[in-house]
Amino acid sequence: MIVLSGMIGAGKSSMTEILAKHLHKKAFYEPVDNNPVLPLFYKNPKKYAFLLQVYFLNMRFALIKQALSDDNNVLDRSIYEDNLFFHINAEMGRTTPIEVEVYEQLFANMMEELPYAAHKKVPDLLIYLKISYRKMLKHIKKRGRSYEQPENDPSLIPYYQNLIKRYQQWYENYHHSPKMEIDCDQYDFVGNSNDRQTVLEIIDQKLAQRSKSNF
Hints:
Elements (H helix, E strand, L loop, with lengths): L1 E5 L5 H12 L2 E3 L9 H6 L1 H24 L4 E3 L3 H13 L5 H22 L6 E6 L2 H11 L12 H18 L5 E5 L9 H20 L3
Parallel strand pairs: 1-3, 1-4, 2-3, 4-5
């Protein structure tokens, strides 16, 4: 199992599709476009932060169980990032202490259940898509979701900047599985075929190293 990680607009879904096709594996995507809570969260983060993160956690848990029922697959986000997003919202005062306690208990219970439900707890490889704030905004603007645009909500600017900083810290501290980083400012794997091939070769090399070692 390979999982993608990274900021909003980093290209996780695109890389999931590219990588799944390259490796002849099945792709699993985060439910965003049909997410009934996400637009509510952007309108009122304080009211809907807890509900949104529980929704994501529940959907991610179901996807992981489904993905792990097969031998090989690619997921466009890891469950570990859900915990990161929740605590960032908690630090911003968008959740109550009781909600934090409930979420932590729920997350811990889910992580305990994964090995028994799917006989495997961690991914074989986590691929972190690193992206700058400027590049991220460019991608967000291009995909056109109105509730993600900073010009419609200036409070998103410090939120996004904090996310980028915390994501890098999160990746550096990530230790659950083998990991690697792809610089999205250096490689345009969506629009440039040469960059795409280079990135795939880098990932192939990492997978080859993974197959020769025991984590």
